Amino acid sequence: MNEQSKRNRRNRSLTTKQQQTILLWSGDIIAAAHAAGYSEPAKTAYRLMKNQEFTKQLMFKQETMIKESAKLLAREITVCRAGFINRLWEFAQLAPGETSHTITGQIKAAEILSRIFDVKINRTADLDREIEGKAEEEMDYFVAHEYFPEPGDLEKWHATNEDR
């Protein structure tokens, strides 16, 4: 075979057997080459993977399979974005007494919500310094109102909560 015909052969579209190999591929290129009818599937698989058009088409099939798998999985999962966000919000608002007497879980839920809504928390160390030395009831107030109580706020808050 002369050099010109080799170049033309490399530049043309895939052969029917090559296309069949892509169609039969499901993760094992040698098995696909064998199923497509190649007499030496291992050698052929090696050669096919050096063919840029073949690998391009194989990658396209892989991407398509991934997208379709994701669609099928999404139909099976009953969690929606709004439900997930609502549950995080409910968790972020729990009083420390309802969890393990800390607000670590609530802070994590708030951080996840901030990432979802693209809110920037620049320095969490500031928050650590802010909550250091606070009493449990002040932390409960903070979780409920998103700010620490001013003098007199706790008494009003306790009076309001006692009515419920």
Which descriptors would you attach to this protein?
164 residues; mainly alpha; rod-shaped
Concise account of the structure shown:
It contains ten helices and no strands. With 164 residues, the chain is mostly helical.
- Most strands sheet: none
Q: What's the overall average pLDDT, rounded? A: 80
Number of self-contained structural domains = 2
The unreliable regions are: none
Separation of the first and last Cα atoms: 91 Å
What is the percent of helical residues?
55-70%
How many DSSP E strands?
Answer: 0
Q: Which strand-content bin applies to the residues? A: under 5%
Number of helices: 10
One letter per element, helices H and strands E, the order comes to HHHHHHHHHH
